[in-house]
Every structure is written in C-alpha cells, then in structure tokens.
Amino acid sequence: MKNQLDKNNIPQHIAVIMDGNGRWAQKKGAMRIFGHRNAMTAVRESIEGAAELGVKFITLYAFSTENWSRPKEEIEALMELLVQAIKDEVPTMMKNNIRLSTIGDVDSLPDKCRQHLEWSKNETKNNTGLTVVLALSYSGRWEITEAVKEIVKKVGQGSLDIDHIDPRLIGEHLNTSGMPDPELLIRTSGELRISNFMLWQLAYTELYFTEVLWPDFRKEHLHEAILAFQKRERRFGKTGTQIKHKC
C-alpha cells in the first residue's frame, strides 16, 4: 500500500478522530480503560507513519469538552494514562525530531497533566519535523466561541475595526493559528460524523471513515486513507475542468 502512494501528494496536515476504544474493550470483555491503554500502539503507529511520509502536522482528538460528562473513574484513568504516555514518548519524539503541541482548553486539565504537557512542549519546541497536536478538552464550538469573544473585545477596545473582520482574521484567533487546515480527516470505528471537531478548519477537508476500531489502527490503515485521499479531485468550489486546466 505504501508503495502505491504518490510521494508528491501527501497531505501536510492530517486530523484524526480516534474512536472505538470502549467498543474494542467491550468486545474483549474488559473495562473501557483497557481500550484506552491499548490505543497507544495505534497512536505510535500513526505518528511514525505520518513522519515517514513527510506529513507536517497530525492532530489527534484525544479528549473533547463533552468527554468531561463521562464517569469520573474513566476520566481520572484517562488523565493518568495521558500523563504516563507523555513521559514515555518524549525521548522518542526527541530522537525523531517531533514537536508536541496542543489545542483546546488546557487550563481545565488537572494540574499534573498540565505540568507534564508544558514540560513536553518545552522539551520538543525546537524540533523541526512532524508536529503532533493533541486536542485536549477541545471542541470546535468552544474554539469558535473563544475566538469571537477575543475579536469582540478588540473591537470594543478600539484596537480592531469591525470592517477588518474576515475569514483570515478569524483563523488567526483560533487555536490552530499558524497551522494549515487539515487536508484529510480520518475517523475510525465506522461512525459517520465529525463530533464537534475543528468545525472551522474542516471546511474543505477530505473525510475518510473506516470500520477499524482505533486500537487496531496501524500504518497500513493510514496508508489506505492517504491513498483514498489521493484518488479524489479537490475542487474547492471550482469545476473539474478548471482544476485540470490549471494543472
């Protein structure tokens, strides 16, 4: 599958909704957290696969604002797992020139989790290869709401003219400012929705859905998604003829 890929048409930003951990565990007669623990192999494989292909950004939807409504025991276990995963993965990230970043309401995370995140981001900040973006306590509506608040504040203070508000300026006030919009979104487990993820940024993103549950996701599945992406014609509102003529 990897050999079939066009190396000149690799998406520079891939977003991933990592879904199916709980169902994977339930199929094995185990608690949901068992699925979350076993999902780390899928995370590593996806990051390694993206780095090998020259992808610049991979954004992983790790914890949504809606996930705070889950059982307290599951949330606490998830946060402990996140802290441990960060500690374990930083040496590998340094070795492979990978930078860690985050989007979302990180201030709402437990102190221990926040501290490890900041330490990891600082350790890897000078790396120039793949950037791994963890979406934590994140939702698209929350992000857009926060951007609107900041813009309204600037207009009220007189530092921003309302006529200067355009899509570019709104993008600059989002958590993903400075990053390209995802070209490809992958969602595992067969669910056909985007679940409040990167609502602004996914406007022209190619969507790829797979029945594979996240803990079973491997490099070959990433390659399948990218191959499907490469077979599509991205028109951005233009006709197919216009796109071909430009090429």
> How many separate structural domains?
1
Percent strand equals: 5-15%
Reported CATH architecture: 3-Layer(aba) Sandwich
The name CATH uses for the topology is Undecaprenyl pyrophosphate synthetase
Q: What structural category do the secondary elements indicate?
A: alpha/beta
Name of the level-1 CATH class: Alpha Beta
Span between termini: 26 Å
Taking the sheet with the most strands, its summary is: 6 strands, parallel
- Gyration radius from CA atoms, angstroms: 19 Å
Overall mean pLDDT stands at 93
Oligomer: single chain
The strand line-up of the biggest sheet is 3-4-2-1-5-6
Shape call: globular
Query: Which segments are poorly predicted (pLDDT under 50) over 5 or more consecutive residues?
Result: none
> What is the count of DSSP helices, taking H or I runs of 4+ residues?
9
